[in-house]
Write a structure and sequence with these properties.
The structure is a homodimer of 246-residue chains.
Chain A: E1 5-12, E2 15-22, E3 25-32, E4 40-44, H1 54-65, E5 70-74, H2 86-101, H3 106-132, E6 142-146, H4 149-160, E7 164-170, H5 178-183, E8 188-193, H6 201-210, E9 216-221, H7 231-244
Parallel strand pairs in A: 4-5, 4-6, 6-7, 7-8, 8-9
Antiparallel strand pairs in A: 1-2, 2-3, 3-5
Chain lengths: 246, 246
């Protein structure tokens, strides 16, 4: 495997952002501009967004500045700067058509995101290998934080990857990810929307119930699919501080 | 009404504790030893405990030291330093017998706690009147935080008392408190135990669902009835800071 290649380097508000590529997958490493690089949290973005979307940048800044942690984002397969196949284009078109018509989109999202997850899991593991070879990072437990498609990728990743010691998931359907969820035993925070217009409440509750972890907390907020409150990112930061720094 | 009478005054770890009596109800006011008295949070204790139980003291210290708030606890009717009637003694005996036998205790707790709440609500309102006449406290929105019996008292109190602007409830059955819960519209955090051996999961979820508030968050933790994690007190402190100080 080729070593990690850093390309550009910028900083804002005390957070250093370094673009990198591992095996043609582009990512960003977010860390404190001064002082040591804290334990890593892998941030998985949602469907249709990318490694530098506002939500990723916002979570990375909180993790670094409020938590003393560092963060890494990748463009998921078929997202951001990465190519889409004809199959990807077709799936996106089907999802958009269903959403526009107000029809249930769950079965299509679950199947397509499972396909993306199969591609993404080895990419995350290779990125973690490459980052942990850097002396400033080194070995040690890391966290994973991803909602929506970030959960569809994260559940099989955390089930397979023993270096991930704590995870924040949420806002996803039950059936396609439940078998891997049952294998997960690390501490979890799970976020769902109580009035989600796409994901039936019972499926969110059933997915939380499915995880094998003995330490798990459900955070259900009143509101619709896209209305996850900003304070859940603060809560996730404190969760990772509890599990990665104390 | 008689003014508030302060009796003893002690302090520990930077928190001033002042015992007081309002209309024969004993309470404790917890505030910063130095600096201003922050907005008040009313703390309702659980069944069988009292105004100085470890949980009350711990929450009060967090609210004062981490949140810049102040806190007040009262002995609930038939608790702590207060007299128990023959009816109270009988109810406690019935509950203890049911618990020892492993029989469902919910219906008895709900009925007895509803009786205690009818007595406690006017006491809390009189205490709030008396405290807000103190220049160091004054008028302004306050919070309410109580689990178990503290929720049985708190739900009718918050439904009736417009000065309470935010509340943390949890770990209680649905039926007896649902009518008052529907009338509550202030921001809420609601705590339940996912594996509660006394309160069926469906009842906790149904009570969360019943609240009229548009801003409400459910925190469900894996674990049994008495295993609410300590970090929920930290979360409650931040919740009150968001709603009473910003």
């Amino acid at each position: 495997m080729k070593p990690i290649e850093f390309t550009t380097r910028t900083s804002s508000d005390g957070v250093l952002e370094r673009d990198f590529v591992v095996d043609d997958v582009p990512g960003v490493l977010w860390s404190a501009e001064t002082g040591p690089t804290g334990p890593l949290v892998l941030l998985g973005h949602g469907g249709g967004t990318h490694k530098r979307a506002a939500g990723m940048s916002g979570r990375a800044h909180k993790l670094v500045l409020d938590g003393g942690l560092s963060a890494v984002t990748l463009d998921a397969p078929a997202h951001g700067d990465r190519p889409r196949s004809a199959y990807d284009e077709e799936q996106v078109e089907i999802m958009q058509r269903l959403m526009a018509a107000g029809d249930p989109v769950g079965p299509v999202v679950e199947e397509y995101n499972a396909d993306i997850a199969r591609r993404a899991v080895p990419e995350w593991r290779a990125t973690l290998d490459a980052l942990q070879r850097l002396p400033e990072i080194g070995a040690g437990p890391v966290g994973y934080f991803g909602l929506n498609m970030g959960t569809a990728i994260g559940i099989p990743l955390v089930a397979a990857e023993p270096r991930i010691a704590a995870a924040v998931f949420g806002v996803f359907w039950h059936d396609s990810v439940a078998p891997a969820a049952k294998e997960i035993t690390v501490p979890l925070e799970f976020v769902m929307q109580w009035d989600d217009e796409h994901i039936p409440r019972e499926q969110g509750l059933a997915l939380f119930d499915a995880f094998g972890s003995t330490q798990k907390t459900l955070h259900a907020n009143a509101g619709r699919h896209k209305e996850v409150p900003r304070f859940e990112s603060d809560s996730a930061t404190r969760f990772f501080v509890r599990h990665l720094l104390s």
